[in-house]
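Work through this protein:
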Amino acid sequence: MEAGFILTSMILAAISVYLIERRFYGAAVWSAVAAVLSFFGIIHAYVIKAGQTVSDIGWPTGKDFAIGYCFMGFIFYIFYYRQRKACAREATENAEDTEGKI
């Protein structure tokens, strides 16, 4: 397959699954993987020459997509951090509630 369409679909599916399951750290990691692959042109970097698509693999060929994936990963990591902080706060509150009952 040309231009990494299958690979892109697999990565976006993995990100979607992690988001549906509210596992934001996994979504952030897959976003980072997508950023690296798009930066080097493995995905999202192709040119149309003589009526056919040709992969344009190189150093900064997909940098615009890489920036987008980095931004997505950053947002997902913020969600992960807030989720982890809320779970820790809830665990602390539960521990305080059970101390007086024992």
About this structure: DSSP finds three helices and two strands in the chain. The chain has a mean pLDDT of 85. The first strand starts at residue 46 and ends at 49. The radius of gyration is 20 Å.
